[in-house]
Amino acid sequence: MKLFAVLIFANQPGQQAVPLLSAWDLNSFSWMQRGTVQDMMAFMAKTVSERTQPTQRQSIQENTFTAHVHMRPAVDGVSGVLVSDSEYPVRVAYSLLNKLLEEFLMKVPKSSWQAQAAQIAASGAIPSKGEGIVRTSEFPFAQDYLARYQDPRQADTILRVQQELDDTKIVLHNTIDSVLQRGEDLDKLVEKSGSLSQQSKMFYKSARKVYSCCGIM
């Protein structure tokens, strides 16, 4: 079981999701792969966060990765995405996201990022690789959570105090295509993306072909 990334986005209806902060653990990949893998995970996280409704939680598998998305109520204007392998427990993933978003909203005032996020969303100049507009020094807990809960047994404490999450339906999807809006095509979204390098687009196409042939996607 492995956690690769956690990202928090600013989300406003009808606008692109804007990365507020992110934390990464890509040590299981070779140094030559890490940049490309980070590109694709950040793109996946942004895509699914934009297609998740307020208060909804859904998990989307793509290739060998799973993106767990937790959208806060519309008034909060944020979502969290945890990227893991397919073996990481879903319940633990959402407990982690819920706790992380609660702390973020308490410790980082909305007034400190809302205007800048709206400006970035309007311009379309979304930072690549999930790079956020909130400095790590303002909220260092994302990296701490990512490290602490690599072992899901470490989540026992927050699981005991957040039983209400069990009563909220989690929507599970086999691939990212299932969360796209009618008429959208993932291949075209990837090709048009300004945040993906040409190398990352080639990596995506290669992986898509391999997993399609193997019947996983």
UniProtKB/TrEMBL annotation:
A molecular-function term among this protein's GO annotations:
SNAP receptor activity
SMART domains assigned: Longin (SM01270)
**Keyword Ribonucleoprotein listed:** no
Q: Taking the first listed entry, what is the main subcellular location of this protein, grouped into a coarse class? A: membrane
Compartments in which it is found: Endomembrane system
Q: Which UniProt keywords apply?
A: Acyltransferase, Coiled coil, Lipoprotein, Membrane, Methylation, Palmitate, Prenylation, Transferase
Its domain of life? Eukaryota
One GO CC term, this protein: Golgi apparatus
Query: GO:BP terms for this protein?
Result: endoplasmic reticulum to Golgi vesicle-mediated transport
Domain Longin: residue ranges: 8-114
TM regions (residue ranges): none
Against PANTHER family, the record matches this protein to: SYNAPTOBREVIN HOMOLOG YKT6
- What family does this belong to? Belongs to the synaptobrevin family.
* Record protein name field: Similar to S.cerevisiae protein YKT6 (Vesicle membrane protein (V-SNARE) with acyltransferase activity)
